[in-house]
Amino acid sequence: xxxxxxxxxxxxxxxxxxxxxxxxxxxxxxxxxxxxxxxxxxxxxxxxxxxxxxxxxxxxxxxxxxxxxxxxxxxxxxxxxxxxxxxxxxxxxxxxxxxxxxxxxxxxxxxxxxxxxxxxxxxxxxxxxxxxxxxxxxxxxxxxxxxxxxxxxxxxxxxxxxxxxxxxxxxxxxxxxxxxxxxxxxxxxxxxxxxxxxxxxxxxxxxxxxxxxxxxxxxxxxxxxxxxxxxxxxxxxxxxxxxxxxxxxxxxxxx
Length: 255
Ligand code: GLP
Fold this sequence. Notes:
Largest sheet: 7 strands, parallel
CATH architecture: 3-Layer(aba) Sandwich
Radius of gyration: 17 Å
Strand order of the largest sheet: 1-10-9-6-2-3-5
Number of domains: 1
Distance between the termini: 26 Å
Bound molecules: 2-amino-2-deoxy-6-O-phosphono-alpha-D-glucopyranose
Number of helices: 8
């Protein structure tokens, strides 16, 4: 795991966007795994600007998002479909047929019924697998919506959200009652199959979980810790989240 500590969120966003751009320049038909949440918003902004300035094109790129709530329609402002459109898709030249976000109808609460899950994993394989996966991290160490548990699912599946996650995400809704109870998410196996992974961590509220990720071994109770087993993971964190980490590579950029 490589750690790159930057001064501010703006630097984190620029560095992450530059890494994505480099991936796309090296392989214009790259398959990107995309994350939602507040952390990658700045990176999407930077990428949109790069496309607008003609520095990169996403015309040949295929994307697969990590997760989506169950029970929100794609036009619901808190759905990840809406989020992706708002922060990236409406601003770049990524072809609509190459954008993928998991989607399950309300009622598909068991994997047996989740045909969309199998189909999603099949599609990722068919497109050649993910070249670069972007990840954020939940306060409890979840990646995508893979919540801490005795065992973790390998493939895309339906998950019951923990109260902690629903509370953390309630800030985006009018009340906690409106936060969906279930989601569809890529599994840890699908994530670990990505050739490269970029984990973005920002803010003082992520300090504790980052300390656990840095110090603890691999445990399903901290799903992000599985990333220790992956051969090519870069963590980009800002000072607020990781200023105290005794890591070797510190990136300092002028702002
Ligand atoms: C959400 C998403 C994750 C995201 C995480 C952190 O619940 N399912 O993909 O990485 O929580 O979100 P944030 O960046 O807002 O802290």
